[in-house]
Amino acid sequence: MEMRLLVAVLLLAAAVASRLPSAAVGANYTVGDDKGWNPDVDYTAWVKKHKPFYKGDWLIFEYQNGRSDVVQVDEVGYDNCDKANALTSYSKGHTYAFQLKEAKDYYFICSYGYCYSGMKLHVTAKSSSSSSSGGSSSSDSSSADDSSSSSGDTPSPSSKSKSKSKSSSAAPATSLLLAGAGPYAAAAIAAAALLLNLNRVL
C-alpha cells in the first residue's frame, strides 16, 4: 500500500512538473561557419541557412584581432554601417560569444570599414518553441576568448547535447506522458513506471 501511495505522489508531481516551463538550452552557431566573422562572407545567406534562431541561442563570432570587431547596433546603424550609437562593442581576443537573450531583431556590424562590403549580420530571435531549438549547432566552441564589452564580462554558452529519452519497460500510458513532458517530469514519470514494475516483481 505504501508503494502505491509513493507512486501516486510521484505521478502527481510529474504531472505538475510537466506543466512548468522547462529551461531551454540554446544552440551554438559560429557566425560564418568555417569562414568566421571576416570580409567577403555572405552573412545573409548564412542566416538563411541556419534560421530560425531562438531566444537562448548563442552566436559565436570568430575574428582576427586588430582587423575586425563585433559591434551591436540598432537597425539604423546596421543600414548605414554606423557605430555612433553602438549598443555594445567587442574587439579583444579572437572569439566573442553573444547570447540572444530576448525574442527580437539583433544587428551587428564590423566598424573597421568592412561593413560597407557586407560584413554585417541581422538575426531575428524567436520565442522558444516547445520543441528543440531549430538548427543544428555549428561549433563546439563554448567560451568567449578575451572579449571586451561595454557591459562587462561575457558569459559562455553551455554546450548543447541532444539526447533522446530511453523508456525501456514503461507502460503505454507512461510513454504517452513522456512524449509531452519536460526533462524533470519525464524523469519523475520514468521513476514512477520503474517503481510500478518493481512492485509487480516483488
TrEMBL record:
As given in the record, the signal peptide range reads: 1-17
Keyword Phosphoprotein in record = no
Transcription regulation as UniProt keyword: no
Q: Name one GO cellular component term.
A: plasma membrane
Where does the record place the region Disordered?
129-169
Q: What InterPro entries does the annotation carry? A: Cupredoxin (IPR008972), Phytocyanin-like (IPR039391), Phytocyanin_dom (IPR003245)
Start and end of every Phytocyanin domain? 27-127
Q: Name one GO molecular function term.
A: electron transfer activity
Write out the similarity annotation. Belongs to the early nodulin-like (ENODL) family.
Name by which UniProt lists this protein: Phytocyanin domain-containing protein
Name its species. Paspalum notatum var. saurae
